[in-house]
Amino acid sequence: MPNNQQFKLRTKFIGTRDVHEYRQTIGSWVCEQDTILEIGCEWGTTTMKLAPACHRVIGTDVSQDCIDRARREHPECEFDVLDAFDVRAAVDLAVAHEIEEFTKIYIDMSGLSGYRSLLDTISLLTMYATVLRPEAIIIKSASLKHFANLCQPWRGHDGVSRKSQQAKT
Q1: pTM confidence score
Q2: Which of 64, 87, 98, 166 has the most CB atoms in a 10 Å sphere around its CB?
């Protein structure tokens, strides 16, 4: 039996197909009060684009080599090594950087791009939404976006959801 609390997340999930769509979201989803965690920043290009739009951004990647290069190419930005699947390390990162909360999380998981990794991607999103509780998670995953576009919530035989029907009575 599922735990109904797991479905009461306030986090919005925004799926993007490619790096162009991923970066396009900055104008719509980022505001100057935001503190952003970017996961999978590679060489820091998106982190650098996020920086002027928000209060603070930290770009992370699992590769120390990528973080070293990002720091060289974008010394004005903050970068740190982080394994995306170690959500406890993300919490520790916030504490170490004296961050009260990440309001948005950007995730570029190019390594998890096929349908075989869809469950891992959904698990990752759920972990971050549950533990860090950001307002939104913007993720670059063509397979997740395609899958989400195929999903439709069940509304019942007459097109009305059961919950809506119960509220009327």
Answers
A1: 0.85
A2: 87
